C-alpha cells in the first residue's frame, strides 16, 4: 500500500506543481504578449472550466497520500535525524501551501480573484511547492 501511496503522491505533486508553474510563469507571458482581454479568455477556459475542477482532486490525492506516508514514517522515526527534521519542515511548508490553496480557491469561487492577495498566494504557493519538492529529495540525501 505504501508504494501505491508514493506513486499517487508523486503523480499528484507533478500535476499540482505543473498547474502552479503554468499559472505563475506561463500565463503571465500570454497576458504580456496578447493583452488583458485575450488573456481573460484563455484564463477562463484553462482555469475556470478545467483547473477549478481538476486541481482540488489532485490536491486531495496529494495530501491524503502524504498524510498516509507520514503516518507510516512516524511509527519509527528518530526526530534527531536530518531526515526527520527535513520531513517536519516539508510538512510545515506543505500545510502552508494547503492553507494558501484553500484560500485562493475560496477567493476564486467568490469572484475575488482580482485581489492582490490572490496573486501573492500564487507566488507563495509556487515558491513553497518547489521548496517542498527539493526537500523531498534532500530528505534522502542528507
From TrEMBL:
InterPro entries hit by this protein:
DUF474
Keyword annotations: Membrane, Transmembrane, Transmembrane helix
Domain of life, per lineage: Bacteria
Ranges that cross the membrane: 6-30, 51-74, 86-108, 120-141
Q: What is this protein called?
A: Copper resistance protein D
